[in-house]
Write a structure and sequence with these properties.
Number of helices of chain B: 4
Distance between the termini of chain B: 7 Å
Strand content of chain A: under 5%
Largest sheet of chain A: none
Strand content of chain B: under 5%
Oligomer: heterodimer
Chain lengths: 122, 139
Amino acid sequence: MISWLAYTVIALAGVSVVWGLVTAVANKPPGKAQLIYAGLVELVTLVQSVIAGVRLALGASVPETATTIGYLIGIVILIPIAWFWANNERTRFSGVVLAVAAMAVLAMTLRLLVLWTPTILQ
Amino acid sequence: MNEQRAPVRPTNTGPGRILVAVYGLFAIAACSRAGVQLATRFHEAPLAYLLSAVAGVVYLVATFTLAQGSQTSRRLALVAILIELVGVLTVGTASLVDPAAFPRATVWSSYGIGYGFVPLVLPFLGLFWLWRTRASSVE
């Protein structure tokens, strides 16, 4: 994991969470900009997973290899699924669906940071 | 307020979409967790890891049945959510009373503390939603 990239993902995802909740409270479906932004978050997440995957393949050692790989794969499928689920019925609730996915990406990135550098919590 | 005469309101629309999203998230989380645990270190804690797998299947069934929203799938969703409720309460309590029996965490350990207690709240929301969308609802 590259720390600054992980923190970038966390920050971008955090904005997506807030944005989704704000449009829900304002009783609006997610707008075009919001959907494009979700795509951007997905792109950066994907870059992170690819870099981490390459590093693992090149022999970077982590204590929990299987779990780390699971997270690296799982984290990139959430936003696309939420994106289609949100687009399928565009109401205020679609924004919350996007927020849920972004929240999961945020939490999983934090978990990945810990998995990658176990000393961070010790 | 327009649909109060409908015999049953679909579970997969409006706020129900959030519920399906959260259930889907937990289905992915629990199933992957169980997959990794069962594949790499089943011998360490067979009970906990099998429970993870059960939790994963329960979430998966709840996700698809709530997303489908038909009359039949409502019944399946109810069964899945009741199993989920019993599971999180039983495993949650057992993991606190007898931690030795659960040396490895599952989604339901300590009432889902590792997942922000969402696993504890989710079955109640699920039951509430099934109740809200039940047939002949008086609005």
